[in-house]
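Entry type: protein chain
Record version: 2
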Amino acid sequence: MYKIPFRRILQSLWLKTFIALAFAALVVMLLAPRNRSFQYQFSSGKPWAYELITAPYDFPIYKTDEQIRMEQDSIRQEALPVYTLDSETLPRMLNKLHDRYTQELSQTLPRAYYLHLQEVLRKSYNIGIIEASELTRLRTEGHLEMNLLGGNNILTRTPLTRFYSLKEVYDQAFEQAEAKGLSREELQRMDVSSYLEANVLYDKDYTDKLLADALSSLSTSTGIVQQGERIIDKGEIVTPYIYNVLRSLRQEQVHRMGGETQSVLNLGLFLYAALLFAVLGVYLMLFNRALCIQGRNILLLFSVMLAFIALTELQASSEWYPLAVIPYVMLVLLLRIFFDSHLALTSYLVTILVAAYFVPDPLPFLFVQLVAGFVAVFTLQSLNSRGQLIRAAFAVYTAYIGSSMIFAWIQEGRILPSYWISLLFYGVNLIFLMFTYILAFIVEKLFGYVSNVRLVELSDMATPLLKELSEVAPGTFQHSYQVSILATAAATKIGADAQLIRTGALYHDIGKMPHPEYFTENAPTNSPHAFLSYPESARIIIQHVADGVALAQKHGLPDQVIEFIRTHHGRSTTRYFYNSYCNEHPGETVDPEPFTYPGPNPYTKEMGILMLADSVEAASRSLSQYTEEGIRSLINKIVDGIVSEGLLNDTPLTFRDIQEIKEVFFLKLKTMYHARIAYPDKH
């Protein structure tokens, strides 16, 4: 049948790669700011070579990196580690001491030893016991104090000398026992060391948090220069202070412009955009190759993406409008109308990733846009009416509010009053989204597309043209409906456009309306062909294709639907009249052209399926008995005949597709006609 040559695929891959790189370069050259670097050159101790410069706006005098680094090092050195006093250790050890004494030692050891050890433990644990290795480490790091976290989470600066080490507590227990007249040997029976454990413990997380808070609170500036304030005039020496002011002005200017770009071609941005567009190109080649065949698809896709990236850059450079009013999700809605959800979502992800480069705070931007984009895709899983676009727009508005509120909560810990103004901006965004269906109509006209929504609307049996067909030619209408069932099922099976072929099938025979009586499904008896010659009958039958095209154009049907009318017979012949004429003129050379449809032959999967479905459904009406064997034999005869005549040579249908289509036709016709099994006769 039809197979795309590998060489053509390779050429197409190179072409799409070139287009991806070209669009990446376009993003860099047209959208990236030209020059964000400071336009003055200066050095400390040198004269200022330019005219008077004053502060264009208020800006801070930034500390140098060295100053900030030194202050950070000082903060780290002065920061005290945090230790916690574990209040659970003492009760646990006292319980352990009590249990052992009452169960094992109370009969042989005087109670005075128990009370003495209990007193030692209370005193030591209340003050605090720390590992000797911890004390050594702290002193090595130059610390003489620590932050002790006590009850109610109160930090107290505490000298290291206050605490006991495990060895000190152990030694004191025996020294104090001897002072009380208690025997050292008897006290050793209580295994004193088993009740000793450090309860002053290092809290790394709290220590790191305090240090991080101290570092974050470090001011990066030493003062502020007010707008209009004189900085330096021509010929004056750039002192260290003036140098720092000029350096701060340069830093502030670069920051306000969103980053520093030294040339028109920013290599980093080019590689960033090129990689993202290349990923999209690979996705198209692997999973949506049919879309790449037509250049208009690539043009529409990249044009829409480029438009939203340009809007983002314009907002970043001019701040003429808030970022929240740009309807990025319109890209999802628009592409979903004409293509599938996967393509719409993938293109949207690439677009917002490129646009994020121009956004001052990209993380919340990506979060909000990702949530809104996925909500749009989920809302439009099946797109059957334009009203769904309005519902999707409101769903996206809700997603914008929810996701932006969550991120505001994360950043600020609460919803600030200034946040609520963003609801107005997202409302403007909603209004733009609701006009997507108007933009879709414009795209249909400019690019010659027909949307899935438009096809669904045309498939409505209540449309004027189909309603007229059902009234004027009811047999033809019923035939078209049956053909649409067969064709839609076959298209779904082999992955063709089911909605397009359904619409095409319903309209493919509207050309029979001017003369319905000449077609057997409308006049099974008393056919007017009995009074006509075979060539004249063939001319009238063939004319229904031209009449159908004219009628479709008159009613404004899309070109994609009109092509089904034009190609559903291809270059086949009116077999009945041609054969009958040949039989009446034996021995003559009969010109088949007067009996041949004008064509062209089908050239898409959908057109090929419709030709097969039309021929099989029409022939099935001639069966005398609807048995499984009869239906299958008829399908094989009709389909194989069309294939052998070469009528499907221009379509991308494969032999495997043909076999699957045959099987679908068989199952559907068997259901339509309630085919019965042929019971064997009794001998």
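Comment: The radius of gyration is 43 Å.
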